[in-house]
Amino acid sequence: MTQPSSPDTEFLAFAETLADEARTIVYEAQQQAPTVDLKADASFVTATDKAIEARLRERIEARYPSHGIKGEEYGSLNTDAEFVWVIDPIDGTAAWIAGIPVYGTLIAVARARRPWLGVLDLPATKERLTGVAGVSAFHNGKAVRCRTAVKPEDAFMTSSNPRFLTDEERVTLGRLDRVVRFTQYGGSCYAYGCLARGRTDIAIDGGFDPYDVFAPLAIIEGAGGIASDWQDRPIDLDWKGQIVCAGDRQLHQAALKLLNG
Predict the structure, then answer these.
(1) Residue 32 per-residue DSSP state
(2) For residue 2, is it within any domain?
């Protein structure tokens, strides 16, 4: 008799089929220049963002009608459910528009409102990271772990566009930036994948929403990493704003101490 699959195995397999569909839409869209609009917050959106999210939501609602969905382009549905799919159809839309290959599709499942399972698909480089928080993480099918036992002064840090930060947040980030060995800006979701793979040590940002980070966080926490907001509070579906991730708890705590003076 065949044993039923566990929820993480089942949902992860389904999430990968969604990522396959999203990648196909991206490849088809690459054949012509994107049509770009500005949203109310002055961020970019394209027809491709909308097409991907609409398709993924359609598939999720058909397969798991009792689950919730939270997406960047079409809002929230039933987010009090035990399982909520959290979608960013193209994370790094500006990079996608410019043809800079650090954009990706983020597909996560929140369980009890926390990042639990994630897929980070990078169509331009044909890379994919998957993970289950506290269990495991993979890069193109190969197990990965975060780098550990790194001192702040030896750390390689990443951050997105400083425009996402307030003036006060830029001052706060500067306290950490002056200590680490180097800070690379502008990597979008690719930077979070690098942390999970042990290539970088700290990822820090502000002005974010759950769909920006839930998939990467599930992967990073599956690879042994740690994440919180800048005051060491957990990231959940009600969170919005600041995030700092590190390869292990010791470095994470050191980063928080520097951020908070």
Answers:
(1) S
(2) no
Residue 31 CB neighbour total at 10 angstroms: 6
The HSE-up count of residue 163 (CA atoms within 13 Å, CB side) is 6
Looking at residue 207, which CATH number applies to its domain?
A: 3.40.190.80
- Tens-digit pLDDT profile for residues 219-246: 999 999 999 999 999 999 999 999 999 9
> Which amino acid belongs to residue 175?
R
Q: 83-91 and 68-71 as β-strands: parallel, antiparallel, unpaired?
A: parallel
Residue pLDDT, tens place only, 90-113: 999 888 888 899 999 999 999 999
Of the candidates 238, 246, 248, 241, the one whose C-alpha atom is nearest the C-alpha of residue 112 is 238
In the chain, the largest separation of any two C-alpha atoms, in whole Å, equals 61
Which amino acid, one-letter code, is at 37? Answer: D
Q: Which regions of the chain does DSSP assign to beta strands (E)?
A: 36-38, 44-46, 68-71, 75-77, 83-91, 104-111, 114-122, 127-132, 136-139, 142-143, 156-159, 182-185, 202-208, 226-228, 241-246
| Same domain assignment for residues 132 and 207 | no
Per the CB < 8 A criterion, the answer to whether 148 and 247 are in contact is yes
Tokens representing 50 are 């909308």
Three-state secondary-structure class, residue 103? coil
Measured distance CA(246)–CA(172) in Å, rounded: 17
Tokens coding 206: 């502000």
Measuring CA to CA, how many Å separate 4 from each of 8, 9, 10, 132?
Answer: 12, 10, 9, 18
Write the burial class of residue 107 (CB in 10 Å: 0-12 exposed, 13-18 middle, 19+ buried): buried
Find the domain containing 193 and state its range.
152-259
